[in-house]
Amino acid sequence: MPIIINLDVIMAKRKISSNELAEKIGITAANLSVLKTGKAKAIRFSTLDKICEILQCQPGDILEWIN
Amino acid sequence: MWNKTKSLILSRIMTTAATIIVLLMTFFVPAISEWYNDISEAKGFFESINITIPMCIILYICESLALMAFHSLHTLLKNISNDKVFVKDNSDCLRKISWECMLAGAAFLILGIWRFVFIFPAFMAVMFGLIMRVLKNVFEKAVEIKTENDFTI
Q1: How far is B103 from B48, CA to CA, in rounded Å?
Q2: From first to last of its 67 residues, what are the pLDDT tens digits of chain A?
Q3: Which residues from chain B sit within 8 angstroms of residue A50, using beta carbons?
Q4: What pLDDT was estimated at residue B91?
Q5: Which residue range(s) make up the domain with B115?
Q6: A64 strand-pairing partners
Q7: Are residues B153 and A35, on separate chains, in Cβ contact within 8 Å?
Q8: What residues in chain A have their Cβ under 8 A from chain B's Cβ atoms?
Q9: Which helix (H) or strand (E) segment is A65 a member of?
């Protein structure tokens, strides 16, 4: 899939751990791992909203489309 | 009180009982074939030919197919009791059962050369195989949707 998840980069910039982020979003660490590794088939708007709110970023910072 | 677990247990008991019956029938196939040859009216393409041997062969083939289908049913029921419903293994089981029914239908159709009456069980077996095939397609799609749902974060 040509959509890349740059969650790792933003998380490193904000200095937040996976477990902490998962807890704040309200998803399991396993699901966050699925998202980070690019195995996810889709992302809910509600999840994206929480990620952006917690990491103080735009959806475009997390999701990137490459040709 | 009747519940889902009891229903599954009943299905497993019935499948086991059917497997045992089919296994026991193995010993009586020649006798059944001879008996049918004696009582049946010779209406087919080869009316004067004795049906005992071809019927024995076809029944043994159908028995093997039935045993394979029962094995698939056992696997299906085992997976369902383990809460693994929409998994690839189950759709594979349904696909196997479908093909086994189709093959049994083809076997009965061959027997129809000697006795036209066997065209009816052949039709029924093919019909059942077709239903199982459609079920398999439904299951395959359900597995796909479940996978997508599981990976929606």
Answers
A1: 27
A2: 688 898 989 999 989 999 999 999 999 999 999 998 888 889 999 999 999 999 999 999 999 998 8
A3: none
A4: 94
A5: 4-150
A6: A4
A7: yes
A8: 27, 31-32, 34-35, 39-44, 47
A9: strand A63-65
